[in-house]
């Protein structure tokens, strides 16, 4: 069962002589309940692909559906709404709001949507991510690892269809990275959280169900339990 489906995705930046073809017609399906890692050299198109699959950017041509909804024909407002309802984000530099407590940062996606957290789900979530005694702290009073835990809880709190993580361990030391990866893995196990992670981290790839390798704007190789075929 796939929750994000991309077909023939081309992304060209700019026009004319200076145009950069970042993606050359990528076909990919993100399988429900799996952790999918996206790897590849710098400039291979990982961020571009992630932004398109997450509805942050639109392809120049090709088709992308999120939860069965074709995003390429949606207007900006409808796309923003779909993103809020279906997508959670985790960033390399955490992107927390400095003036808000950990609790309010975690609740932000629900606050923006005018919704309230189910108290039981919220308590279990903050317990799982190890923040139960840090909820009143602002980001500056938390370690990098704790800040990323806040970001993970924020991504999970609205129970999104897919969580996209962009180099989630890129700004953390190796021990803390391991803890954050364990946490991401456990959200897949515990909540069946479909997760897509762009990473350079071999340890991250090792715990993924599936790894997509990009080179020069194309998926050149795919490994993992779910892959029907290896292209290389
Ligand atoms: P990666 O995430 O693998 O490093 P990117 O998706 O960031 O790769 O970039 C893919 C290609 O697209 C690169 O050649 C990059 O220079 C180019 N690119 C990315 N974003 C832009 C942009 N906003 N304008 C022009 N070129 C871009
Ligand atoms: P970038 O830093 O990659 O340019 P933006 O700040 O422009 O990203 O945000 C792009 C999208 O990412 C937003 O429309 C929103 O959907 C999502 N996003 C950004 N920051 C947050 C956040 N703190 N919490 C949840 N989603 C966020």
UniProtKB/TrEMBL annotation:
The record ties this protein, via InterPro entries, to: AAA+_ATPase, ABC_transporter-like_ATP-bd, ABC_transporter-like_CS, ABC_transpr_LolD-like, MacB-like_ATP-bd, P-loop_NTPase
Q: What PROSITE patterns does UniProt report for this protein, alphabetically? A: ABC_TRANSPORTER_1 (PS00211), ABC_TRANSPORTER_2 (PS50893)
* Protein's UniProt keywords contain Mitochondrion: no
- ABC transporter domain spans which residues? 4-232
Q: What is this protein called?
A: ABC transport system ATP-binding protein
Q: Which UniProt keywords apply?
A: ATP-binding, Nucleotide-binding, Transport
List the GO molecular function terms: ATP binding
* Signal sequence region: none
Organism, by scientific name, is: Kribbella pratensis
Is-annotated flag, keyword Coiled coil? no
């Amino acid at each position: 069962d796939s929750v994000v489906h991309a077909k023939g995705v081309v992304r060209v930046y700019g026009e004319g002589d200076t145009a950069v073809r970042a993606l050359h017609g990528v076909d990919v399906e993100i399988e429900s309940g799996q952790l999918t890692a996206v790897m590849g050299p710098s400039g291979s198109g990982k961020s571009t692909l992630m932004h398109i699959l997450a509805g942050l950017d639109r392809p120049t041509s090709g088709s992308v559906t999120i939860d069965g909804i074709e995003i390429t024909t949606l207007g900006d407002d409808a796309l923003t709404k779909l993103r809020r309802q279906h997508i959670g984000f985790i960033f390399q530099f955490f992107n927390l709001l400095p003036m808000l407590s950990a609790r309010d940062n975690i609740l932000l996606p629900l606050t923006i949507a005018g919704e309230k957290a189910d108290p039981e789900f919220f308590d279990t979530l903050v317990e799982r991510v190890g923040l139960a005694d840090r909820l009143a702290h602002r980001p500056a009073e938390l370690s990098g690892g704790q800040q990323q835990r806040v970001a993970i809880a924020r991504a999970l709190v609205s129970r999104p269809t897919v969580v996209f993580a962009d180099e989630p361990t890129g700004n953390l030391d190796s021990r803390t990275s391991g803890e954050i990866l364990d946490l991401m893995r456990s959200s897949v196990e515990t909540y069946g959280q479909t997760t897509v992670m762009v990473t350079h981290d071999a340890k991250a790839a090792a715990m993924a169900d599936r790894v997509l390798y990009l080179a020069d704007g194309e998926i050149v190789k795919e490994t993992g339990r779910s892959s029907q075929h290896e292209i290389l």
